[in-house]
Amino acid sequence: MQKYDIAIIGGGILGTTISYWLSTLYDLKICVIEKEPDVALHASTRNSGVIHYPFYINSKQKKNFAKAAFLSHEMWKSLANEKKIPWVQGGTIEIALDEEQHKTLEKYMIFGKENGLTEDDISILDSNQLKQKEPNLTCYSGLYCTKEGSTNYGMLTKAVTEMAKKNGINFLLKHNVEYVEETSKEVNIIFSDNSSLATDFTINCAGGNSLDIAKKFRLLSNYSDLHFRGEYWIADSNIADLVKTNIYTVPRYPEFPFLDPHWIKRANGETEIGPNAVPVDSPEAYDSFITDIPTALSKITDIVTGSTKKLLLNTDFISLVSKEFLSSISKSAMIERVKKFIPAIKPENFPKRGTAGIRTPVISPQGDFVSEMLEAEGKNSFHIVNYNTPGATGAPAYSAFVVKKLQEKGILPQSKNQKKSIWNFDKIFEQV
Prior knowledge:
The chain is built from eleven helices and 24 strands. By secondary structure, the protein is of the alpha+beta class. The strands form six sheets. Strands 1, 2, 9, 10, 11, 12, 23 and 24 form an eight-stranded mixed sheet that branches. A four-stranded mixed sheet has the order 6-7-5-16. A hairpin with a 3-residue loop joins β23 and β24. It is globular. The two termini are 41 Å apart.
């Protein structure tokens, strides 16, 4: 049986950045466990690619997300420049369609300044000012963030992976965790093919599967999760520049993980509209509502017996779910949502579907969606659950937060000298 000092479960954007930090600070035997044949095949690649700034994040509810997103911007930018990865800083406009939504934008201005942004970064524009900037955009007002843009997080994740490998990190691909045995001294991880490894410490950051992994460690048993597929449509090239800026809309139900539609300018030059939020049975159900019968039955059982069942009594939630299903089976329904602010578009302008991604929000024992990431500790393990948007943007800084936390708990020793690295560990905490 192979033995490691640290095993990281999850080869996505979070697992790879944690592994990279560790490889620059320590000489330890570390592995990253990934069930797929390559890293970043799920949420790390299947996302909008937008570089988020935390102007819309309530710092009291999502403090760590906000802080990490703010600090990570320049870190990703430096990596993208060095590795020649697309980085387009065209800005984002969050629009309000009426006076009530405008009040939300005013709150966002306060959030943004609390999270470190300045008046040079964000400003509120009225409808006339927006018409001058984007003549084909129709709305009441908008919050313009100059620093937002688009990149390719899958490419960034693979770049981090290669740097971690050069520093000695072992990536164990096609290793699906079946069950674990956690003792007072170590963790034994057993895989689906009956192979196994031992490790002194485990870090779980398995994305949409992270809650399931935590439960294998007998943690967070009172929590549940749901999987929502977000679908996009790609614009024809003849209308792709109808609006040249990312357009987001104020969410009508911020307590739910339903995002009102966006107009996204991707780093590859394509324009997409979306997403919706369609419930599916697994974090990999990209092309259907049901992955397979056993998976579907398992999720139904979880819903009926877990904290999710309390959501079924919420009529607003059930109504929204039905509308999201409609926008999945009907392209016209999706287009009608976007026509409210870009009236010139037509269904025939969007001939093919874009890349679907899946978010997996966690539900508390009280039946509410959890806003912040969850961190849980086992005997010899640390678990990061509910790591959602803007998780890709904030991954480098948040990964450093995780390493720092493990140092403060005495699980990792203080590192005196960082090896040659594209990112400076100590500088992050100077900024904090």
